């Protein structure tokens, strides 16, 4: 029995910032961002969206009457949680009209949370092959205006269903992981923006990747020649390129060209959205599926990384019902309909914050189905415009 990713959807608001504008305003060369960082645009998240609404807007594309009653768990990976006690997953359960006999759990380990969800879901479905698990990675990446991390901001959500006999990706059983208490990135409870030691974090990312890649090879006996492509956690897309280059010498010249071409396919979407934290690896996987020439049975390697730090390398083979036409069309339409913000508009949106207590928000500039309409009696108020 094969178990893996059956469906994979994405959502982010249509408002974005062109990083050439950011570079000019911050007195930087645009190529420092476009080439040195590997980013072209970043999503700008309005105050009427949070981790819950982002997740709902992604998940509604893959949860419907055909599978709603099969979903036994919602595993919500995020580092942008909205409550120190109540999970984001239980809000999502209500918004999606999921059944009551269901587990709703929030998972946190920086950008690794969604991968933990995928692995837990894989184990659950193995024991319950008639069920599905909804896995979410939803975040808003914030470092602050005019900070070194500003260029790697962004946000959005991925939603995946993990099932038996999946259409997209059959996950292999073998996986390699590593954890270590490292202060490369963190966000104390009193802060809305993250703290990061950028160069140190890059080095840890590469070290973890090489460690888990070597562990995986020792476990499985597989080599780089067994892989058609690799997908990486991409806080910025140059980071994944550095990781791939660390192992490229293990491949022959022909395969190196193939792996590089497929890496370029895997970062098309991330270049235009920015950092998703928990969802970044899976947006990269979606981009790989949609923009590379792939065939059923080919093996894909995936590297997940969460600062602080935890890394995991795992793999899967493309499913027999692999079809990307609908997803490619959605992304084409989405990128063609986005609204570019000026620097002044971007800074104004970024600076808007929810107050500590009651507020009613202006929804006129947010066309999403699920929105945050305000706070009443210290409770977030969500609206489903589809009902």
Characteristic terms for this protein:
alpha+beta; 3-stranded mixed sheet; HMG_CoA_synt_C_dom; 35% helix; Hydroxymethylglutaryl-CoA synthase; 387 residues; 9-stranded mixed sheet; globular; Peroxisomal Thiolase, Chain A, domain 1; hydroxymethylglutaryl-CoA synthase activity; transferase
Describe this structure in words.
GO terms for molecular function: hydroxymethylglutaryl-CoA synthase activity. Keywords: Acyltransferase, Transferase. Its EC number is 2.3.3.10. It is a single chain. With 387 residues, the chain is an alpha+beta fold. Strands 5-4-6-7-1-8-13-12-11 form a 9-stranded mixed sheet, sandwiched between helices. It has a 3-stranded mixed sheet with strand order 3-2-14. A 3-stranded antiparallel sheet has the order 15-16-17, with helices on one face. A hairpin with a 2-residue loop joins strand 16 and strand 17. Helix 3 crosses helix 4 and helix 6 crosses helix 7. The two termini are 38 Å apart.
Compile the SSE list and pairings.
Layout: E1 3-11, E2 15-18, H1 19-25, H2 30-37, E3 41-43, H3 51-59, E4 71-77, H4 88-95, E5 103-107, H5 113-127, E6 132-141, E7 154-164, E8 169-179, E9 185-186, E10 195-196, H6 198-220, E11 229-232, H7 237-247, H8 253-266, H9 268-273, H10 280-291, E12 299-306, E13 310-318, H11 325-336, E14 339-340, H12 343-351, E15 359-360, E16 370-376, E17 379-384
Parallel strand pairs: 2-14, 4-5, 4-6, 11-12
Antiparallel strand pairs: 1-7, 1-8, 2-3, 6-7, 8-13, 9-10, 12-13, 15-16, 16-17
Helix pairs in contact: 1-2, 3-4, 6-7, 8-10
């Amino acid at each position: 029995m094969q178990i893996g990713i059956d469906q994979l959807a994405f959502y982010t608001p249509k408002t974005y910032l062109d990083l050439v504008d950011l570079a000019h305003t911050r007195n930087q060369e645009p190529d420092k961002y476009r080439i040195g960082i590997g980013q072209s645009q970043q999503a700008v998240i309005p105050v009427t969206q949070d981790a819950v609404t982002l997740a709902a807007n992604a998940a509604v594309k893959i949860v419907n009457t055909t599978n709603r009653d099969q979903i036994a768990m919602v595993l919500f990976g995020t580092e942008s949680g909205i409550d120190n006690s109540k999970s984001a997953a239980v809000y999502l359960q209500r918004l999606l009209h999921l059944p009551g006999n269901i587990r709703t759990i929030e998972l946190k380990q920086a950008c690794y949370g969604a991968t933990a969800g995928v692995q837990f879901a894989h184990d659950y479905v193995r024991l319950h092959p008639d069920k599905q698990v909804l896995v979410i990675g939803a975040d808003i990446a914030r470092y602050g205006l005019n900070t070194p991390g500003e260029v790697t901001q962004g946000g959005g959500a991925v939603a995946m269903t993990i099932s038996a006999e999946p259409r997209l990706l059959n996950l292999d059983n073998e996986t390699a992981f590593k954890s270590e208490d490292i202060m490369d990135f963190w966000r104390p409870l009193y802060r809305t923006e993250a703290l990061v030691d950028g160069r140190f974090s890059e080095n840890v990312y590469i070290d973890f990747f090489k460690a888990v890649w070597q562990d995986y090879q020792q476990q499985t006996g597989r080599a780089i020649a067994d892989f058609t492509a690799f997908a990486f956690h991409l806080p910025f897309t140059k980071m994944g390129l550095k990781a791939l280059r660390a192992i490229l010498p293990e491949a022959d010249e022909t395969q190196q060209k193939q792996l590089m071409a497929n890496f370029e396919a895997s970062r098309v979407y991330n270049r235009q959205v920015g950092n998703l934290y928990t969802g970044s690896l899976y947006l990269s996987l979606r981009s790989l599926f949609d923009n590379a020439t792939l065939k059923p049975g080919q093996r894909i390697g995936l590297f997940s990384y969460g600062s602080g730090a935890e890394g995991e390398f795992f793999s899967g083979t493309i499913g027999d019902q692999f079809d990307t036409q609908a997803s490619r069309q959605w992304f084409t339409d989405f990128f063609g309909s986005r609204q570019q913000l000026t620097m002044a508009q971007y800074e104004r949106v970024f600076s808007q914050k929810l107050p500590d207590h009651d507020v009613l928000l202006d929804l006129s500039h947010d066309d999403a189905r699920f929105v945050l309409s305000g706070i009443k009696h210290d409770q977030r108020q969500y609206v489903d415009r589809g009902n």
